[in-house]
Design goal:
By secondary structure, the chain is of the alpha/beta class. The protein has 2 domains: 138 residues, Rossmann fold; 187 residues, Zinc Finger, Delta Prime, domain 3 (Up-down Bundle). It has 17 helices and 8 strands. The strands form 2 sheets. The chain has a 6-stranded parallel sheet with strand order 1-6-2-5-4-3, with helices on both faces. A two-stranded parallel sheet has the order 7-8. Helix 16 packs antiparallel against helix 17. The chain starts with a strand and ends in a 10-residue tail after the last helix. The mean pLDDT is 88.
């Protein structure tokens, strides 16, 4: 069966028996993680007390999955085998194995697969159709920009927060494209302003609070050519335990926006109009204008390639340290002339 993410909780409540396989696919890490948490919680309630985690890469041996699924636990425990598929493709040989397994699945084992967004061919594949027929497919869709204020309002209400209109729009602009960042910002605002209706000044103050570093301080420092501060902020963010995907998202978003601005200026377009299109306001308008005059398109494209390398490293597809790549990107954006590690 196919289930929408927002319907998953109610669907699981109505189910008294586990399905042999669950597939969660999509690019929103927060919503994917929450969907997986709901499924795990349901399975724990059905006495699935053992969990085996496997990360799939190009050298992954799928035979071990089915051997583990069909092996009896020493303590006769029901087991979840969780597969982090990422962007890896399921080839025909593996597809055949999976289909044969689903024809006669182990009674006390459930497969939980987490994958990046599947393309059209993958959705039409035999293995995906078999999962849909014998188990559950949860497809995670991103929250579109026009729906983001409503999503933030609903989340904030569960935390005892509300926003004035301008404050809500400011927050939405800052977290567009990354719900994990949005959730973390809401959690921070809950600590700073518990059970309040927030104003624009309060939201901006919390996000740009100089007493602690955040991802927006990093992008601002890079735009202002503050190389030493960039290094300090990256180190602080890592020490504070902030997730690398959130930091990479902020840098990548800045690079793409700046790339569109520089490209537009090269085509003779007006900066004020470009800034309005990119929703660049306030002090950032001056920062981005200055940066657009010193950074070349080729440099931005090279930094975006390095961002791709960092993303692959985060997903375990590249042995490099994603934090080192993040630091390198921020330093290059700050004007430091150093060779990029990414090709």
């Amino acid at each position: 069966m196919k289930v929408k993410a927002e319907q998953l909780a109610k669907t699981l409540e109505r189910s008294n028996e586990p399905l042999p396989i669950y597939l969660i696919t999509g690019d929103e890490a927060l919503l994917q993680g929450e969907a997986a948490d709901l499924i795990r919680a349901k399975l724990r309630g059905l006495d699935f007390s053992e969990r085996e985690l496997m990360h799939v890469d190009a050298q992954f041996n799928w035979d071990q999955v089915f051997e583990s699924a069909n092996s009896l636990s020493l303590f006769a425990e029901r087991k979840i085998i969780e597969l982090r598929l990422g962007s890896q493709k399921i080839l025909k040989a593996t597809s055949d194995l999976l289909q044969r397994y689903l024809d006669n699945p182990a009674p006390d084992t459930v497969l939980l697969i987490l994958a990046d967004r599947l393309d059209g061919n993958a959705k039409k594949s035999a293995w995906c159709k078999a999962v849909e027929a014998k188990g559950m497919v949860v497809e995670i869709w991103p929250v579109e920009l026009e729906a983001l204020p409503g999503w933030l309002t609903q989340r904030a209400a569960t935390m005892g927060l509300s926003f004035e209109k301008e404050a809500l729009q400011s927050l939405a602009d800052r977290v567009e494209g990354n719900l994990l960042a949005a959730q973390q910002e809401l959690q921070k605002l809950t600590l700073v302003y518990p059970n309040q209706q927030l104003t624009l000044d309060q939201v901006d103050a919390a996000v740009s609070d100089s007493s602690r570093f955040d991802i927006f301080a990093l992008t601002d420092a890079a735009l202002q050519c503050q190389a030493a501060r960039c290094q300090h902020i990256v180190h602080a963010l890592r020490q504070e335990g902030l997730e690398a995907p959130v930091v990479l998202w902020a840098l990548t978003r800045e690079l793409r926006s700046l790339h569109r601005v520089v490209e537009g200026i090269a085509q003779g377009k007006n900066y004020d109009q470009l800034a309005q299109r990119e929703r660049i306001w306030g002090k950032r308008k001056t920062l981005v204008r200055t940066a657009s005059r010193r950074v070349r398109l080729s440099e931005l494209e090279a930094m975006l390639r390095t961002a791709g390398e960092a993303d692959a490293a985060i997903k375990g597809q590249n042995p490099a340290d994603p934090w080192l790549l993040i630091a390198q990107i921020s330093l290059r954006l700050a004007g430091v002339k150093l060779p990029l590690l990414a090709s």
